[in-house]
TrEMBL record:
Places the protein is found: Cell membrane
UniProtKB keywords: Cell membrane, Membrane, Signal, Transmembrane, Transmembrane helix
Species this protein is from: Thauera propionica
Pfam short name (any one): sCache_2
UniProt protein name: Single Cache domain-containing protein
Gene3D superfamilies linked: PAS domain
Length: 165
């Protein structure tokens, strides 16, 4: 059995390790488990990198976005790319089964047509943010997600954070 002092040292190490990854660590209430949650600034940085990658390499960038061990899938952050007009997924960092499929009728747990709503906004403004409910790939739970997205030609790239509730 571990002593309280040893448990506290282990917990301190976990928090320090999570902080060194550049993510915030949140302890689920009462569970003692640590979850890594990325920040909005980290999501914006990844989106900026994804936009630059798309501008430099066009559709060849999709392969990098789809690589689960690559630098566009980190903890709970990942990139997805959708056609502005056809709403077809071109890339998705954690759900490759969506690639090539239409998101026109895709809805979150509350019925929100979140991909169509994102496409509507990028057609008029070029970028935006939207909150919806989506499965967190780290813990497998449906959670509030805030997506940041930006148009690049005939597609838009998006990255989101899972908002602690």
């Amino acid at each position: 059995m571990l002593s309280i002092a040893r448990l506290l040292r282990i917990r301190l190490f976990v928090f320090a390790f999570a902080a060194s990854l550049g993510a915030t660590a949140a302890v689920a209430q009462g569970s003692g488990q640590t979850e890594v949650r990325s920040t909005q600034a980290q999501a914006q940085q990844m989106l900026d990198r994804a936009v630059a990658e798309l501008k430099a390499n066009g559709p060849r960038a999709y392969e990098r976005f789809n690589d689960p061990k690559g630098d566009f899938v980190i903890n709970d952050l990942y990139v997805y790319v959708v056609g502005v007009d056809d709403l077809v997924f071109r890339a998705h960092g954690t759900m490759p089964k969506l690639i090539g499929r239409s998101a026109a009728t895709l809805r979150d747990a509350t019925g929100k047509r979140f991909i169509a709503d994102q496409a509507d906004e990028v057609r008029t403004v070029g970028k935006g943010t939207l909150e919806y409910i989506w499965r967190n790939p780290v813990n497998g739970r449906d959670e509030l997600k805030r997506a940041l997205y930006q148009r690049v030609g005939d597609v838009f790239a998006a990255v989101g954070i899972y908002v602690a509730q």
